[in-house]
Amino acid sequence: MSSVAQPSEPRRNDAGPDQNQRVASVEFFVVQFLTGLASAASLFLVASGLSIIFGVTRIVNFAHGAFYMLGAYVAYTLTDRFEGFFGFWGGIVVAALVVAAVGALLEIVLLRRIYRAPELFQLLATFGVTLMVQDLVVMIWGPEDLVGPRAPGLRGAVDILGLAVPTYDLFLIVLGPLVLGGLWILFHRTRWGVLVRAATQDRDMVAALGVNQTWLFTSVFALGIFLAGLGGALQIPRNAVTHLMDLSIIVEVFVVVVIGGLGSVLGAFIAAVLVSELNAFGILIFPKISIVLVFLVMACVLIVRPWGLLGRAEGPARQPAGLSIRPWRPMSQNQRLIMLAVVVAAGFAPFVTGDYALTVLAEIAVFALFAASLHFLMTVGGLASFGHAAYFGLGAYGAAFATTMFGMPMIGSLLLGPLLGVAGAILFGWFCVRLSGVYFAMLTLAFAQIAWSIAFQWVEVTGGDNGILGVWPASWASSPATFYWLALAVSVIGIVALRVLVFSPFGYALRATRDSALRSEAIGIDRSRVQWAAFVIAGTFAGIAGALFAFLKGSVFPDNLAIPMSVDGLVMVLLGGIETVSGAVVGAIVYKALAIWLVSQTDLSKLVLGAIIVLLVVAFPKGIVGFAEDLLARRRTRADDGGSAARTAPAKATAPTSGSGAAPIAAPKMEAAR
Amino acid sequence: MSTPILEVENLSKSYGGVHAVRGVSFTLAAGEILALIGPNGAGKSTCFNMLNGQISRDTGSVRILGRDTAGLRPREIWRLGVGRTFQITATYPSMTVRENVQVALLSHHRELGRLFGFAGARHHAEADRLLGLVGMRDLAERPCGELAYGDLKRLELAIALVNEPRLLLMDEPTAGMAPKERVALMRLTATIAREQSIGVLFTEHDMDVVFEHADRIMVLNRGSLIAGGTPAEVRNNPDVKAVYLGEGSVYGGEAAA
Amino acid sequence: MKLEVHQLNSFYGPAHILFDVDINVGPGEVVALLGRNGAGKSTTFRSIVGLVARREGRILFEGEDITARPTHEIVRRGLGYVPEDRRIFTELTVEENLMVGEQPERTGAPRWTPEKLYTLFPNLGEMRGRLGGRMSGGEQQMLTIARTLMGNPSLVLLDEPSEGLAPKIVEEMANAILAMKNEGLSIVLSEQNLHFARLISDRAYIIESGRIRFGGTIRELEESPDIRDAYLAV
């Protein structure tokens, strides 16, 4: 089932080699179809939970996969301890309830603080939770795969057209539509459901009619998490429980909701069936390119219906990433001189530090360029990509191919390698810019994961998990000092180029599409073309950074384009300050240095990193540079007018709900603007 | 009044069997200010969005300066010389007032594809001239996100004038403005329209604005035009009173300064 | 007094919007809050029902201090709020919209049922199963008022009920508001349309730049053209 994702879930029901001999028979297709339907059940449960939560809270809960995984682990423990019919089925239900309770707790502690934050921050915060859960799960249950019991009463198989179909699969096939019907009744025939649908559209209005929306949200979130936990718990008779199942399911769920339409439960059902069947048959018919099949279907759906089969056109992002009300200015002469001095000082590093430090500094330079390229797309373009590592990784693989396959010299590889990243950005970007907001984020993530799967599975070319080794720099650049200078030079040139772009006419066009799509169309700007170009530009610079990275490490691995790498980039931009022009570079330097230090200090780096991400989003949403700019601006205001009573109210004025800390751009109606 | 700026013939649109607009025909001459009024849901917005290219039409033709706009997207219609302001202002909050106008000028001169050169230095004087026209020269350096609502409406007018339009489409140009600002904005629009012989089509809910500033008024009800003529004619038309104006107890006339 | 607002100050972020606003509403009264766009009318209403995060001063409803209460609790005490720009649930039918507003009956306030509301707003009765998004602006405005009445409030805040409506619909709206008054409801409405406000109100306040500049009967307002001209005039 998880061809899109990480192939880490061994199927227990695969009958093995003897089935392959019967590939062509009609009976076999029927059975394969049923297996696909059974797989769809869990996928639907998880995806519908995500959709329901999104509908009301407008949060795409990245941690949904983590709750799916928790459901499986808790169910494993419960069914392991309490055997028999009631032990098993009770354990499944109790596991889902336990997970729902944990979800409710998360909603109360964390999500309530970020409901009004920009989408990007919510995705990041819930991703931070995912990271933390990954480490916690390994701490509690250990790193080994766990195999749960079979379902009492449904252990056997039913004979269909002469082939054995597990009874449990039939149970799952029936369960899916039952849950779908139950949810429909819940939302259309109960007052709670009507309130939820009302809150989906306008939560403040629901409160203004006397409904306690705080608890309404908590209950919706708990329901969504219950479905995720149940989906996970129901998997234990079919698949082993692993600590990698969270990311694998979340990517599949993203694909499902993008196809079905975010917010639509019925859409989630249809898409879950579609994706599961594509996987079931894809593996049989095109074993090597089963990934591509899902990708093609998703692409077709998006061309015809950009908001999914049953989705509705979303308004523009509540607040596009990077939208600032502090107009950007190019650097003054003095600032340029300071920057020049900083770069020159960095160039002297080899004379004062050792080889290890230089390798670290070269890596920081590479990531500064990577972060700057993401910043260009995300802050200048307002397009928060959750899969930017794809172009970094493709650039790295491109350089590795050029070196190892075609024996190209280093300079040639550095020039040609990034072209693979460019090609990827051209292809994926064309689809992505058709969407915006969370859809854009999810689609970029899905594409990155597809690129990852190809790198992972196409062993003949990419070496799979073993990567490609022997990508060493030319002899003239092999000393740490020269390679550092090379990395620094490329990085500085790239960052300067991106900065020039920001203030170029194209940069203005890009910011215009971010600020107001409506106005841009009305003054002759072709939004999707501008954003596509920005996507390719960002992908190009990420590819250059990736190619450098390949030579820095001497090797490339699928990790280079995996989700954690994409998130590293996001955290760098966020840490530096999302509304600033120079934040990304500062963020990259601080984050990379911190991360390298952290890994050397603790085994629980995911737990710590996750906590840092959550803390950043909740407490310092403006990042380092944004915080500094605020301080400066405040000092300047104070100097300008000794405090006109109207404008300089005490600092506690900020609303407690505005976890985003974003300036009140759309302050409640225009009264505030006066 | 010579060649019509805008010729609309038998324009229709339906959604799911409901006729939003049916058989609407009219023309607009250079320098003329034409108001489109009618109850909510009468089809004003649909009409407007068809003229603008935001939604496609089922039947009928729209000619702007003699050119049929069938199949053109909003940005292509803009290139024909159509300026547009929105009911809820759409501007660029992260840019200064001047930069807002500069982006439109860059687009007009087809320079937005350039990857280098400082955009803030281009068309500086032209942007300031347009801002001066709407009385916003002093606000040029201000961040647009900090402007008062009435100023945003004037900024939209400046942006709409960037491509030397022959046709201005203004959707509720004075919505959300104070009475004094309404009069000022409409007078300004009228002056510019006459000087540059621009045809203006606007929708509006404030009858005081409509009756004072429109040369001609069309009344839309349930998708069809039910009346058209001078303000006085429309005001006294019994059909219009029945579906829209009522007995006149809730709008002024005597309130006009 | 039904509603007493004492020295209300409100803020959006660092911006100070309302300054020492005082408003009183007696039982069964219709009071108009007049002012230009941006004068602070909506902020006053939003502050009363607790939708403005930071507010100072004291707000008493039926003698009880509601200043620190969350919005839903304030509403459940019988203080209904109809926001500007309607905010109908477009994906819900008329009946479902009314269901969202439903609250238990309370003493001292008129009791509303869907049937009774369909007589007050006959249009709504003819389209009970229609989706909110498929209604005209005037019908939506009626529905948003009906939806709030389903909470059986004893006082209603109506934010710009005539905004964006055809003059003819505005006349219908005036009649509906008078009918609500006859049921014993206290009503506060914010308006820019002086013609409309004086048709239905007993008293009026004028707000300008977040400060109350005038308070008195409609007659007093009519007799002081200088005040009208200073704060409302064209």
From TrEMBL, chain A:
Subcellular location per UniProt equals: Cell membrane
Topology relative to the lipid bilayer, per the entry, is:
Multi-pass membrane protein
Alphabetically ordered keywords of this record: Amino-acid transport, Cell membrane, Membrane, Transmembrane, Transmembrane helix, Transport
Q: In its UniProt record, which GO terms are filed under biological process?
A: amino acid transport
What are the start and end residues of every segment in region (Disordered)? Answer: 641-674
GO molecular function, one example? branched-chain amino acid transmembrane transporter activity
A Pfam family assignment: BPD_transp_2
Biased-composition ranges, Low complexity, are 642-674
Q: Which GO terms describe its cellular component?
A: plasma membrane
Q: Which segments cross the bilayer?
A: 28-47, 59-76, 88-111, 123-143, 163-187, 215-237, 249-274, 281-304, 337-358, 365-391, 411-431, 438-459, 483-510, 530-552, 572-595, 607-628
Q: Which family does it belong to?
A: Belongs to the binding-protein-dependent transport system permease family. LivHM subfamily.
Q: Which PANTHER family match?
A: ABC TRANSPORTER ATP-BINDING PROTEIN, BRANCHED-CHAIN AMINO ACID TRANSPORT SYSTEM PERMEASE PROTEIN LIVH
Protein name per UniProt: Branched-chain amino acid transport system permease protein
Q: Which organism is it from?
A: Chelatococcus caeni
Automatic annotation (TrEMBL), chain B:
> What residues does the ABC transporter domain cover?
6-247
- Recorded GO CC terms: plasma membrane
Does the entry feature the keyword Nucleotide-binding, yes or no?
yes
Q: Name one GO molecular function term.
A: L-isoleucine transmembrane transporter activity
Q: Which UniProt keywords apply?
A: ATP-binding, Nucleotide-binding, Transport
Read off the SUPFAM superfamilies from this record. P-loop containing nucleoside triphosphate hydrolases (SSF52540)
One Gene Ontology biological process? D-alanine transmembrane transport
Q: Which family does it belong to?
A: Belongs to the ABC transporter superfamily.
List the protein's name.
Answer: Branched-chain amino acid transport system ATP-binding protein
Native species: Chelatococcus caeni
From TrEMBL, chain C:
What are the ABC transporter domain coordinates in residue numbering? 3-234
GO molecular function ontology, one term from the record: ATP hydrolysis activity
What keywords are assigned to this protein?
A: Amino-acid transport, ATP-binding, Nucleotide-binding, Transport
Q: Which GO terms describe its biological process?
A: L-amino acid transport
The cross-references to SMART domains, in alphabetical order and at most eight, read: AAA
Q: Which family does it belong to?
A: Belongs to the ABC transporter superfamily.
The protein's name: Branched-chain amino acid transport system ATP-binding protein
Species this chain originates from = Chelatococcus caeni
Q: What is the lineage of its organism?
A: Bacteria, Pseudomonadati, Pseudomonadota, Alphaproteobacteria, Hyphomicrobiales
